[in-house]
């Protein structure tokens, strides 16, 4: 019997900064087509985990695999090229770009014809540009912003700007999407809308999602699996229901 490899396998990852162990032999696996939440109190190591997965921080020891491909210690752009896209906790959209232009940024790594061909207006480059624009339109529809393609992204309400950021990551055609607090700072309405888009990314696009999120309500509704960190250690893991009733988790959150 052969089983599909996990989308992401994090094995015994330790990250040390001068005198401080931010992650201590943390392991978890992200199943294909699932939402995997990483939660824990402040300082638990959530952002460090996120930064290791995206290549911003290097693991002191341990490994990260995408399927059977090792990602450990690759540069962020290599990890993105291999199919792990991320969003940023704070918005990282260019200030004057339209929604379409912001989404198109996610297509750059997929551009084969390149700038020379497009500068010469070769037919291949034109065809490719059309293909990218088609995909940008589809993804704008997916995030519910197809009416706002020519609108300056920076002038949209905060919740929609965050959706553009998510759409930009989707434009990279990732296998795994890393979401850093995707609903933080949103209104209730924006939170509902974003949660529905995230569920759609999993259910319609089949993309695996790793989500660092503070809002326990959203984690419980959306996540298929949860890893709980505290002081850099994995203290619990399982389904949302299992984790919610775990005494170690209750204790960590109550600080008892
Ligand atoms: P969380 O996101 O769960 O709040 P972090 O991963 O940001 O936690 O931080 C975990 C620990 O690692 C904290 O004690 C934090 O101060 C420390 N830390 C994180 N990044 C760095 C860094 N670049 N240099 C030194 N210490 C860091
Ligand atoms: Mg953090």
Automatic annotation (TrEMBL):
Keyword line: ATP-binding, Nucleotide-binding, Transport
InterPro entries on file: AAA+_ATPase, ABC_AA/LPS_Transport, ABC_transporter-like_ATP-bd, BCA_ABC_TP_C, P-loop_NTPase
SMART domains tied to this protein: AAA
One Pfam family this sequence matches: ABC_tran
Domain ABC transporter: 8-256
TM region positions: none
GO molecular function: ATP binding
Gene3D superfamilies in alphabetical order: P-loop containing nucleotide triphosphate hydrolases (3.40.50.300)
PROSITE patterns, alphabetized: ABC_TRANSPORTER_2 (PS50893)
Taxonomy, superkingdom: Bacteria
UniProt protein name: ABC transporter ATP-binding protein
